[in-house]
Known about the structure:
Elements: H1 4-33, H2 37-63, H3 83-111, H4 114-143, H5 148-159
Helix pairs in contact: 1-2, 1-3, 2-5, 3-4
Amino acid sequence: MLNDELSQALNEQMNFEFFSSQVYLAMAAYCSGESLDGFANFYIVQAEEERFHAMKIYKFLNDRGRRATISGMENPNNEYNSILEVFQHAYEHEQIVTKRIYHLSDMALNEREHATIHFLKWFIDEQVEEEAMFDSIIQKLKRIDKDSNAFFMLDAEFAQRVFTPPAN
Length: 168
């Protein structure tokens, strides 16, 4: 059974995932305000994915006989100077998420809480993908800085992005 400390830490991460969804919705709103609907769609999908992550933790807590507790959130940043800045902020945010997941994993290892260790492996793998994705997009944005055609092609590509929850 999950001890109180690990249960509380998982609740905090669940709420941070909900906050992450809000962060990405704020980024989507910025992109929409700049008439970059593809970039906005990218972040709307990202927000859906973060909510999925939060609900995954919610379900895990309930399955382990612990109560998920929803808490309030701070306001996300709503002001940016460029699309590159938005993606850099998103990448930094994902690095924070990774540190938080690693901390949870360390806690579970210390407690020898094998079900939680197994559960968190999915999140660790997900964070590798998230950081790589944002880093790759940042590198592309830096390369196409002055090429408006490439920029709008990327916007069109992001307009096609959809969220499909993983099967498991």
